[in-house]
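Support case: user asked for a sample of complex input and structure output to validate their parser. Sending the pair below.
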Amino acid sequence: MEWLLTPGPVRLHPKALEALARPQLHHRTEPARALFLRARTLLKEAFGTQGEVLILTGSGTLAMEALVKNLFAPGERVLVPVYGKFSERFYEIALEAGLAVRRLDFPYGRVPGPEDVARKGYRGLLLVHSETSTGALADLPALARAFKAENPEGLVGADMVTSLLLKEVALEAFGVDAAASGSQKGLMCPPGLGFVALAPRALAALRPRGYYLDLSRELRAQREGESAWTPAINLVGAVAAVLEEVLPRLEAHLELKAWQNELLYGVGEALGLRPLPEVRSPAVAAFYLPEGVAYGAVKEAFARRKAVIAGGQGPLKGRIFRLSLMGHYDRYEALGVAALFREAFSDILPAS
Ligand SMILES: *Cc1c(COP(=O)(O)O)cnc(C)c1O
């Protein structure tokens, strides 16, 4: 077995594997409609919204793009703090969507504070909850509150790709109007589905555009348990199966994930490694590479133990490495990974 310690895709949940072994359903049949509706109901609970969750076939980035293009019209002013690779992606999507984008840059590893987004004159604010590229966690409720105090009509869109099932999320309670996520991170399913959660305020503000991305068309179809186009129904089954298992014991699940990630940070710090993020997301542990150690050497040391890890992205390429236990790992497997991490570094750092 290989230890997948990458921040997505991740080690699959056994319920996902089981669901994926079932015969093909046709998506325009009653059993498929029932499954699709069940998945949507469970996703609404997971996102903590009284609104709607739309299931799209594609990756998380598709959900981010659908969110931006269906909520904002070209020329509308949006604020986009950039503090990692994924907030940079939100910025690029907003530009491509023709929005008037105000970009705010932060050093990678940091997150914006409420004072940074308390600016008047914006229709929208786009935030990444858990910046997987740096391991940093943004305080969505505080940011949404500060932004809306200045822009009461404004809409807050969030990337919850690595916070869904990893950290408490709740759209309306957070003041977040729309959120995007995907199947291959905290949901412990294969890649292939994107989710767009729309709180009632976002539903009332939809400005659909695009063809495949037209969320009003999806909304009409998905309320009936279908989707406008052929869905990855097998993956929908996997997502429903995992949520059915995890949601009834969500609190314990989130505690386990937080404990596992802190376990990785604990090992790293004991080895003398410097963590990157200021405020830590439970999705991934990110460390600076030790002085004079190349990423390739770290990757190799893990690979010798059948473990796959991730490096840095963008400006962090060659400067950091990342480990994640957001896949399906129990407490004892996580302790095994902690031991593996220590052992891998004994190859890299001579004993002192
Ligand atoms: C993985 C990820 C995405 C989506 O990436 P895809 O490859 O399109 O699924 C978006 N945001 C964050 C924070 C992520 O970790």
